[in-house]
Each structure stands twice: as structure tokens, then as C-alpha cells.
Write a structure and sequence with these properties.
heterodimer, A: mainly alpha, about 0% strand, B: mainly alpha, rod-shaped
Amino acid sequence: MTNRTGTASALTLSLGLAAALALGGTVALGLSLPATVEQGEYSRLIAIHPGLAWASYLAFGVTAAASALWLWPRTRSPRSDLVAGSSAEIGVVFTALTLATGSIWGRPTWGVWWVWDARLTLSALMLALYLGYLALRRVPAPVDVRARRSAIAALLAVAVVPVNHFAVEWWRTLHQGRSLAQTTPGNDLDGIFVGVMLLGFLAMTLVYCWLLVHRVRVARLEDRLDEQSLAVALDERRREAVLAP
Amino acid sequence: MNGYVAAGYGITLFTLAAYALRVVWRGRSLSRAASEAAPGPPVESS
């Protein structure tokens, strides 16, 4: 894992291949979706936008779960803290992309790039909360202190995820209803759109998993290098002490 | 292809690829640095 190939392994190669295939299929099928009466060609964005949002929820859910594992004394492990931080960083990327693609979709269909309705505002709040979480992790502190306060922050921040998800039902918003609810009988989302959207969910999930494995390994290497730097510094101080008259 | 649709797909693929490359490259450089920075033999303190 930590040889010349960096963070790659048989697991990441398999995951990466599956993710690339699923993402390639999503893009190819998404771009070939038929134009709809309501939205014309813009409905082709359904292949990626809901999948990105799902991946951000998944990432922040994993951050919360790993944080809870760290806080529980019986399951506490340094790995949980690394998983929490890594997953949050990936979640921020997916959230930013969700907002970007949503804005690009909203401009031609709603007539505006941005509107302060419940879903969009909560998505922006979610991004801000997890950027704050990542900033908190960078505040210098002993490893245990950093892990504890990050875990508490993650468990508080995750409350915004279900509120954001159900915002389209709890408040009147410009945003359409929940994407998966559109797949139930009686809704007018056509079968091919549902299929491509679900493929998009799978593709973003695989991309998330691939990124998470790599990012956790990078985080472990960062910690190991910090420890090695400390060991070298201590060694130098000891040498100085021995050489001093 | 519609410009908005192209922008949506383009920004998604570009960002995911850029982030993935950043993570993989950082892993490689850290891996190299970790193997080079292995501490030497301990010094006896008198």
C-alpha cells in the first residue's frame, strides 16, 4: 500500500475500473436521453445531479458514523477519525458539484442561477458546515483532541442532511420533489430516465468509495510522516545533547 | 449539444478527475517521502 505505487492496490484498481465503467455509462446514456416536453434537453442533467447529491449525503453519513465509532470507547480507533475526515472532504466536493450542476440546471428552467428556497439554502448551509468541519480539523492540536472535537462537530453537522433531503416536502420550494419518489407508480418520470438516474446513483457511489479508500490511505501516510518528522527532530536533539560539552 | 447540459457534465467530470488526480499524486509523493524519511538508528543517551 505504501510502496512506489502510492495508495493503489488491487481493491482500488477494481473499484476504479467499476467506477469508470459506471460513470462512462452514465454520461453516454445521460447525454443520449430524449428531450422532454417540459424541459427539453435540460432533463439530461438528471443522470448526474441527483447522483451527486446522493453521494454527498452518503459521505456525510459515513463521516457521522465513523465519528460515533471514535467517540464510543469500545470501538475507538485512529482509523475512524481518518475515515471521518477523508469522507467529509469528499462530501464537500460532491456538495459543491451538486450546487454547481443544480444552478446550471436552474438557469434555463427556472430563469435564475440561484434562489433562496429551502433546498438550495440548506445545501449551501451543508457545504458551509462541512467546510467549517474541515477547517476545525486543521486547527493544531494533539491527535486525540482533534479527533474528539471533530467527531462532536460531525455529529452536530449531520443533522442538516435529513432536513435538506426532506426540505422539498416540508416547505414549498421551487425545487422538484425527491428524485426517488418520482420513480413510484403514478409519477410521470419515464422509465429510461429512472434507469439512467439510478445508474448515476451507482456511478457516484462507486466513485465515492474509490476516492475514500485512496484518501484514507493518504491521511494515514500524512500521520505517519508527521510521526517520522517528530522522531527525526527528537533524534537530532539527542545528538546535540550528546555532542554538547 | 445544449450549452447548459455540456457545462453540467463538463464541470462534473473535470472536477472529479482533478480531485482524483490530486489525491492519487499526493499519495505517491507521500509514499515516496515516507520511505526516504525513515528514522536512523537510535542514539544512546548517556
